[in-house]
Amino acid sequence: MKINDPAATLNAGVLAEALTAWKRAFDQHRPEDMVRLFSRDALFQGLSPTLLTGRKEIFDYFDALPPGITATFQIIQARELAQDLACGFAALRFTYPDARTTQVQLSLVVRRDGETWLIAQYHASRTFQGKQPPTSPLAAMMNPFAVDEA
């Protein structure tokens, strides 16, 4: 990532710090440590269609994942929304024990809480390599340019 704006560099550093701590806990399958990185009222959408709110629901999501999955990330963009509030995009790759991978685009908002930055909003969207799955009727209605290759 090449960022020339000092404010953007600072915000990218804040996001990278938050995601580095998340990755460390994720790779070691420590959901109790992961949820401490989220604000108490965090909004969360992982790769399931269920929208989650708060640490308990986020804990249950990560706890249900099988151990052995690891993650890598790269910050794509970062912005300051307001004082003590930053947002951005990251590219994630999850690697499973059998070497399968899943590519994900992540948007997140982090909020300063004292000396710590907590994840206040986390939204993951799977990206597809090669042929994409067929477009659902709802997706086609929302995007008239979508092509169903089924």
Helix content: 25-40%
> Which CATH architecture?
Roll
Cα radius of gyration in angstroms: 16 Å
The largest sheet, given as strand count, sense and whether it forms a barrel, is: 6 strands, mixed
CATH class: Alpha Beta
Counting helices, strands and paired strands, the structural category is: alpha+beta
- CATH-defined topology: Nuclear Transport Factor 2, Chain: A
Mean pLDDT: 85
Question: Can you list the strand order of the major beta sheet?
Answer: 2-1-6-5-4-3
State the end-to-end distance: 36 Å
The total beta strand count reads 6
Number of structurally distinct domains: 1
Give, in order, the helices and strands. Answer: HHEEHEEEEH
Name the overall outline.
globular
How many helix segments? 4
Beta-strand content: 35-45%
Unreliable segments of 5+ consecutive residues: 137-150
